[in-house]
Amino acid sequence: MNDTQLPIWEVFHQEKRGASHVHVGAVHASDEEMALQMAKEQFARRQECVSLWVVREEHVVKTNYDVPFFFARNTDKEYREVYGFPAPLKGKHRE
């Protein structure tokens, strides 16, 4: 951020009570009160809204593109296989 730009605030919008808040965009504002007012004008005028969250962009924790193994999938599903477990005997057991 340079000296002529206001801080960026990420905006989350909730359409109805009990619904999840969804990220809808960002606004530039000097403080949290102004951020809420800007978010209301920008994202709550034309659609249903019961709640807004604003979070300074610098407070959002992000993953790093340079660490690709963070999202690596483990496709080894050996734990689902039944070998290694004793199978039940079928029929009557003879001694």
Rg of Cα set: 26 Å
Number of helices: 1
Quick one: overall form?
Answer: elongated
Strand content: 15-25%
Query: The CATH topology of the domain at 8-62, please?
Result: Ubiquitin-like (UB roll)
Helix content: 10-25%
Class inferred from helices and paired strands: alpha+beta
CATH superfamily of the domain at 8-62: Phenylacetic acid degradation B
Sketch the topology as an H/E string, one letter per element: EEHE
Secondary structure elements and pairings:
Blueprint: E1 8-14, E2 22-28, H1 32-43, E3 51-56
Antiparallel strand pairs: 1-2, 1-3
What does this protein structure show overall?
- A hairpin with a 7-residue loop joins strand 1 and strand 2.
- This protein has 1 helix and 3 strands.
- The model has no long low-confidence stretch (mean pLDDT 86).
- 13% of the residues lie in helices and 21% in strands.
- With 95 residues, it is an alpha+beta fold.
- It has a 3-stranded antiparallel β-sheet.
- It has a domain of 55 residues: Ubiquitin-like (UB roll), CATH 3.10.20.520.
List keywords for this structure.
95 residues; alpha+beta; Ubiquitin-like (UB roll); 3-stranded antiparallel beta sheet; 21% strand
Offer a concise description of the structure.
This protein is α+β, with helices and mostly antiparallel strands and 95 residues long.
